[in-house]
Design brief:
Blueprint lengths: L22 H17 L14 E6 L5 H12 L3 E6 L11 H9 L5 E6 L4 H6 L5 E7 L5 H15 L6 E5 L6 H12 L3 E5 L9 H5 L2 E2 L4 H5 L4 E4 L15 H8 L3 H4 L7 E3 L12 H4 L6 H20 L8
Parallel strand pairs: 1-2, 1-3, 3-4, 5-6, 5-8, 6-7, 8-9
The protein binds phosphoric acid mono(formamide)ester.
């Protein structure tokens, strides 16, 4: 088995949100992920870097990409990996989240990865347990590993983040992906514009996140952008419908092949998934050569390997 390069120390105990990271932290994660990506291209995609470490993946909300890519990342780093879903846990019998996590801690894991519908749930458990906590998405608050893999994908494709013009389109108010991306992209010097139905734009977003709010059409918003990130309507987080229909939404906010004819040749189309084809993204756009959606998923493994490695072995050589 091979090794991964030695890295600078990561100065955080947990990865709870982009809001707690600075530009150096983000660059360290992205640079470390470059080495991890190389491991994924080897015939034997495994290094002993985290041998003997125990990692618990606790997903109290559904997930395909985040859960599976953390599991692949853990296996590639030789960690012992356990997965727990809320639906098959004793949460269904009335046990509290904190009691569940304390019981998990009795088995001495080194890292707990948590996805939860309540904003701040990972921060809460991080205060009570002696393991590194990674936020895999908390309510409408943050999804830091998604923003990091998005940044990795943009940097890999376009060579930089600084100075790029990036459009986030859709349900900005209820999207933790939008929130983490606005924070990360602004910290890295990108220019961020948000666009969507007025009922899905948070009040004061321009001042709170130092972004622009586009008030015209999608065509106008796209004209000078290097990247367009399309977002799903977070129906599971809406108390009551904020739109007349999906059809009406797609007429004003859905990206179609007609739009792509007018964007710049290098413009990337991104989506964190899951995609609602025919709503925010026409199927032909999702499958077009502008779309980097599956590259985002592939890069998610390398970025999550980097985060696990930095949290578990800060500043150490990872040769096993
Ligand atoms: N992007 C993302 O978080 O996808 P999953 O919900 O499938 O993990």
């Amino acid at each position: 088995m091979g090794s991964v390069p030695m890295t600078k120390p990561f100065k955080h105990r947990h990865l709870l949100g982009i809001e707690l990271l600075d530009r150096d932290d983000i660059e360290l994660i992205l640079d470390t992920a470059v080495g991890m990506s190389e491991i994924g291209r080897r015939r034997i995609k495994k290094v002993p870097a985290l041998r003997g470490m125990t990692i618990v993946n606790f997903f109290a909300e559904p997930s395909t990409r985040t859960k599976l890519s953390f599991e692949v990342a853990e296996k590639r780093l030789s960690a012992d990996s356990l997965s727990l879903a809320a639906s098959s846990s004793s949460l269904t019998k009335g046990e509290s989240l904190l009691d569940t996590v304390k019981n998990i801690m009795a088995m001495s894991p080194d890292v707990v990865i948590l996805r939860h519908r309540i904003s701040g749930a990972p921060h809460h458990i991080a205060e009570h347990i002696d393991a590194a906590v990674i936020n895999a998405g908390d309510g409408t608050h943050e999804h830091p590993t998604q923003a990091l893999l998005d940044a990795y994908t943009i940097r890999e494709r376009l060579g930089r983040l600084e100075g790029l013009r990036i459009l986030l389109c859709g349900d900005i108010a209820h999207s933790r992906v939008a929130r983490s991306n606005m924070l990360l992209l602004r910290k890295m010097g990108a220019e961020v514009t948000v666009f969507g139905p007025y009922t899905m734009i948070p009040m004061g977003v321009e001042e709170a996140f130092d972004v622009k709010l586009h008030r015209g059409s999608l065509e106008e918003a796209l004209s000078d952008k290097d990247v367009v990130m399309m977002l799903r309507i977070q129906k599971e987080r809406l108390g009551e419908p904020l739109l007349p229909s999906d059809r009406e939404y797609s007429m004003h906010f859905g990206l179609t092949m007609k739009h792509l004819a007018h964007v710049r040749p290098q413009t990337l189309v991104m989506h964190p998934g899951p995609v609602n084809r025919g709503v925010e993204l026409a199927p032909e756009v999702a499958d077009s050569d502008r779309s980097v959606i599956l590259e985002q998923v592939e890069n998610g493994v390398a970025v999550r390997m980097a985060i696990l490695y930095l949290l578990c072995r800060p500043g150490e050589a990872a040769d096993g």
